[in-house]
Amino acid sequence: MELLRLLLRNALRHKLRSVLTVLGVSIAVMAFALLRTVVTAWHAGVDASAANRLITRHAISFVFPLPLAYKNRIEQVPGVERVTYAVWFSGVYIDKNQFFARLAVDSETFFDLYPEFVIDKEQFEAFRRERNACVIGIDLVRRYNLKIGDIMNVEGDAFPGQWEFVVRAIYRPRDQTVDPANMLFHYNYVQERVRQEMPQRSGLVGWYIERISKSANPADVSEAVDGLFENSHAETKTETERAFQQNFLSSASAVITAMNVMSFVIIGIILLVVGNTMIMSARERTHEYAVLKALGFSWPQLFFLIAGESFILSLAGSALGLLVTFPAVQGFRSALPKGWFPIFYIKPETIVFGCAAGLFVGLAASIIPMRRILNTRIVEGLRHVG
């Protein structure tokens, strides 16, 4: 008990220095958690990928369409249980700063392959019955104050003209890794106008999604699908959904890697801040520690005093930093243009890393001063003037 009281007195002896150290650690921890959250948001699509889904796109580039006639042939491939397709519609809702995914999908099959979009059964039936109906994510409902029956007017770009969609269903994500900000509507509704106004683009889709059986090998199924259209005018590239999502991250891989590295460099900065404080503290108290050694204090007791003070400062800073991280992340998300990071939340792993960093720094920062105190002879310590 007396050791604990002495420990607390040592930690608060230089109040200003202790407060500044705690603030420095908390700012570094907050920066670490924020960077980790941004990296998590970049990889959210990869994390949400299903192991039993494959994506088939044009072999040259994702931007080139594929014939709708491919669907029936893909369904015959062994191991394929279900096939659907989608088209990136793009367009402008309100203004160009309002970004979210707008997809024309096969309403009969798409939602079977994406059970993570949780929709009320009655709402879904209403959506299926109405040709210009749409399904929107709960995030769009909150962002634009929408409700069932509201009209969403979209100005087409890839598909020119004014498009009017009626909100008939709202989906909720099954978990935090699912994008809550998609707008989905009938492919057939889009095709009706395309056949009249742009006949050259009729009967084309953006990409196919296949659900494969549990026993099927994704690589074998992918090879079989691509083999169907080898040497055709529209060859395909089939890959797992995870690989497909990772292709979108490849262009920004250098930036993501840099942010990932910087998040861990910040741990080193925390170590330097606390380590500097502990070295200064141990040097000032060399005479005191020499007295304690002369009185018979063992090295575990001295370690408790030095490491304990380091732990108190680093853990207090870590706790404060993690506490501030939550409003900081929300503020950062609010400041970003809408739609940049539809999935933006602090993963539990980030909190665990922050706590572990506090424990690691508390221990590591006490090693140098502890070694110095133990190696200093009692007589030299008593002569020291701090």
Give an overview in words.
This protein has 386 residues and is an alpha+beta fold. It has 2 domains: 2-45 and 252-383, no CATH class; 65-233, no CATH class. The chain contains 16 helices and 13 strands. It has helices at residues 2-11, 15-42, 44-47, 70-75, 110-113, 121-129, 138-144, 187-197, 218-228, 241-249, 253-284, 286-294, 299-335, 348-364, 367-375, 378-383, and strands at residues 53-58, 66-67, 80-88, 92-93, 101-105, 117-119, 133-137, 151-156, 161-173, 182-186, 204-205, 207-212, 236-240. Strands 1, 3, 4, 5, 6, 7, 8, 9, 10, 12 and 13 form an 11-stranded mixed sheet that branches. It has a two-stranded antiparallel ribbon with strand order 2-11. Helix 2 (15-42) crosses helix 13 (299-335), helix 11 (253-284) packs parallel to helix 14 (348-364) and helix 13 (299-335) runs antiparallel to helix 15 (367-375). The longest helix is centred in the last third of the chain and has 37 residues, at 299-335.
Question: Topology of this protein?
Answer:
Blueprint: H1 2-11, H2 15-42, H3 44-47, E1 53-58, E2 66-67, H4 70-75, E3 80-88, E4 92-93, E5 101-105, H5 110-113, E6 117-119, H6 121-129, E7 133-137, H7 138-144, E8 151-156, E9 161-173, E10 182-186, H8 187-197, E11 204-205, E12 207-212, H9 218-228, E13 236-240, H10 241-249, H11 253-284, H12 286-294, H13 299-335, H14 348-364, H15 367-375, H16 378-383
Parallel strand pairs: 5-10, 7-9
Antiparallel strand pairs: 1-12, 1-13, 2-11, 3-5, 3-12, 4-8, 6-9, 7-10, 8-9
